[in-house]
Amino acid sequence: MKRLAILASGSGSNAEQIALHFETGDIARVALIITNNPTAGVIERAHRLAIPVKVCKKADFSDPAGVEKMLRDEQIDFVVLAGFLLLVPENLIRAYHGRIVNIHPALLPQFGGKGFYGSRVHQAVIESGSLISGITVHHVNEKFDEGSIIFQAACAIDKTDTPESLATKIHELEYKYFPVVVEKALGNS
Ligand code: GAR
Fold first, then answer.
1. Active site residue 104
2. DSSP state string for 128-187
3. How far is the CA of 115 from the centre of ligand 1 (A)?
4. Catalytic residue among 47, 97, 104, 138
5. What is the pLDDT of residues 130-187, one digit of tens each?
6. Burial class of residue 104 (count of CB atoms within 10 Å of its CB; 0-12, 13-18, 19+)
7. Rounded to 5 degrees, what are φ and ψ at 56?
8. Is 162:72 a contact under the CB 8 Å cutoff?
């Protein structure tokens, strides 16, 4: 049984979907959720799901005695970023090389990089006049949204779409695909 950690900064709806996906069976369990945001909705979700949750300062992520040690102490095999907004520091990427994945709410390599998160992504996609958007799951390297792509799925953008309605479509794709893509990536790790 693999032990997963999820890093999240916001509501945590993807974190919850992943936790529920692995709740039964013997493939994996979400053993730890870490957030950098003391007011993130993911904290309440973690409590409800009875998953240990830690709030860590930005500096803890790059400190080998901080988050890295926490992951080792909890014998974490694989790390999932689900709406995590900080750049993952090099020490964590080295420690979990090939075993950290992220979800991005657009079709990379477009609409990615520093500052492209959440509704800002959807706003930029709509303003560009693009007829499609989608989700990208990718390996994490030391740059925002540049690791190798594992999976993409697309949805149509209608003339009437707003950042909010597009976010709903994207979340639907995320809930449908992200947990199964994580399961596959785990199997290949
Ligand atoms: C998700 O749509 C995720 O793709 C996005 O944040 C949202 C988090 O929602 N991630 C990024 O923008 C990373 N650049 P959630 O907290 O409800 O899972």
1. yes
2. TT-SEEEEEEEE--SSTT-SPEEEEEEEE--TT--HHHHHHHHHHHHHHHHHHHHHHHHH
3. 13
4. 104
5. 999 999 999 999 888 899 999 999 999 999 999 999 999 999 999 999 999 999 999 8
6. buried
7. -125, 145
8. no
Q: How far is CA 66 from CA 83, 120, 124, 145, in A?
A: 21, 30, 35, 24
Task: Give, for ligand 1, the residue of 103, 166, 171 to mutate: max count of ligand atoms closer than 8 Å to Cβ.
Answer: 103
- Joined together, the tokens standing for residue 175 give 């809930």
Neighbours of 96 (CB within 10 A): 20
Q: Which structure tokens are listed for 171?
A: 């979340």
pTM recorded for the entire structure? 0.95
Delineate the domains of the chain, giving CATH numbers in brackets. 2-188 (3.40.50.170)
